[in-house]
Amino acid sequence: MSRDARTGPGPDRAAPVRTSSSARRSAAASRAGAGGAATASGRRRDVGRPNGSGELPVDGLVVGTVPLVARLSGGLLVLAAIAGIAALFPTYLVVGGQELSTVSGFGGVLVALVVPVVNLAVGVFLLRGAVPKFGLAYAGVVGALAIGQLLIEVYRGSSSTTRPGVEVIAGERVLTSSVDVGAGWVLGVAALGLAVLAGVCAVAAWGRTVMEDGGALDPARSSLAGAAVLLGVATVLSLALPAADVPDQLVTDPATGLETVVTREGPQALLERPGLALLGGLLLAGAVVLCSVVAPSLRPRLAAVGGLLAIAVAVLAAGLSGLRDAVSSADLEWTVPGAGLVVTGLGYGLLTVLAWRVRRTRP
Q1: At 173, which helix (H) or strand (E)?
Q2: From CA 100, how far away is CA 104, in angstroms rounded?
Q3: pLDDT (tens digit per residue) in 293-343
Q4: Other residues' Cβ atoms within 10 Å of the Cβ of residue 345
Q5: In this predicted structure, what is the pLDDT of residue 262?
Q6: Taking a C-beta distance cutoff of 8 angstroms, is the pair 71, 202 a contact?
Q7: Under DSSP, is residue 323 helix (H, G, I), strand (E, B) or coil?
Q8: Are 207 and 194 in contact (CB under 8 A)?
Q9: Is 90 exceeded by the pLDDT of residue 27?
Q10: pTM of the complete model
Q11: What are phi and psi of 88, to 5 degrees?
């Protein structure tokens, strides 16, 4: 046999090579069509696979490169959580010579830790760059709610003596004839300021962060939005009155035996305070309703989960704070609006779970 016959690319040798290469290209194309294309700089997560009924789950998640400003938002959220935890232990305010602390007792500490602990967990998650729009949505809602709370705290620590009166601060009924700030107030204001900055960074990073899914929540978004709006209105109505109030006193006239109801001055309602506190109350009420409208419409699905989680934590913490004050003080009792805040907070929590668990399939 000649050299050319042994080594030359004869017809019998060339055909198997072409067939093998074509098969590999066909298999690669099939895998690409089944899994979907990721972005050039991104990565594919949670890619759907056909189930037993021949349908393809559409919750496949595409996550691109996380921008630095998104991680900065997570870092600010972590710092806000650390400052919020540190603010629980030093003196909060000195009102009329009486030192006030933010918390008292183990139960009070647990209630006060709800918001900082969740902020810390989500901040660390966002700092790592995992499912970034979940953390960005959470940080954006937290920042929006913190603006009103920040103005209320600034009023309470600096301007509340312009109209001296009986007020309930940190569960104590005091006369605001003089107010001096303590380290707890400073750290609390710093925590709220850092939360606002985290929200600003989250808004700035939102358009530059690539994260999409197949639209598994889209069929249920309108129902979630309607329920969230109803909860938002109920929350604002509950916030308009104190979560813990001073009960009226029943006095009996010893001469006539007549019973008279004597109204005692208690905590000011959200919209009864003047100046910065009034502005803060209006901004807080508006932010609750606005975020209730926006959060269910955020894409992808996990972003809606993050936005609803932020509202749920804030509202539930407000209701539990009223319950804590009523339990720790003999002068206060828990009110119907306070119970309403707990109910609406649990309602937001239920919507958060539904947004997390609802996954529709398409043929």
Answers
A1: strand 172-175
A2: 10
A3: 999 999 899 999 999 999 999 999 999 998 888 888 777 888 899 999 999
A4: 24
A5: 61
A6: no
A7: helix
A8: no
A9: no
A10: 0.80
A11: -75, -20
Q: What is the DSSP letter of 61?
A: E
**The residue to which tokens 């949670």 are assigned:** 46
Distance of CA 23 to the CA centre of its chain: 51
User: Residues with Cβ < 8 Å from 350, sequence gap 6 or more?
Assistant: none
3-class secondary-structure state, position 331: coil
What is the per-residue pLDDT across 239-283, written as a single tens digit (0 to 9) for each? 988 888 777 666 676 777 676 666 666 677 777 777 888 899 999
Residue owning tokens 């929540």: 217
Q: What is the pLDDT of residues 61-107, one digit of tens each?
A: 788 888 999 999 999 999 999 999 999 989 888 887 788 888 877 88
> ω into residue 50 within 30 of 0, thus cis?
no
The secondary structure of 104-157 as a DSSP string is -HHHHHHHHTHHHHHHHHHHHHHHHTSSHHHHHHHHHHHHHHHHHHHHHHHIII
Helix boundaries (H) for the chain: 3-7, 11-35, 68-86, 105-112, 114-128, 132-154, 183-206, 221-239, 275-294, 301-328, 336-357
φ, ψ of residue 166 to 5 degrees: the values are -80, 130
Angstrom distance (rounded) from CA 36 to CA 49: 11
CB 101 within 8 A of CB 91: yes
The token duo for 242 is 């104190």
Q: Map tokens 């997390």 to a residue.
A: 356
* Residue at 196: amino acid letter: V
Measure the CA–CA gap between 269 and 193, rounded to whole angstroms.
23
Burial class (CB in 10 A: 0-12, 13-18, 19+), 291: buried
Tell me, what DSSP letter sits at residue 164?
A: -
Q: Is the dihedral of CA 284, 287, 293, 299 positive or negative?
A: negative
Strand arrangement of the beta sheet that strand 179-181 belongs to: 98-101, 91-95, 179-181
Burial class, 181, CB count within 10 angstroms (exposed 0-12 / middle 13-18 / buried 19+): middle
Instruction: Return the sign of the alpha-carbon dihedral for residues 346, 348, 350, 356.
Output: negative
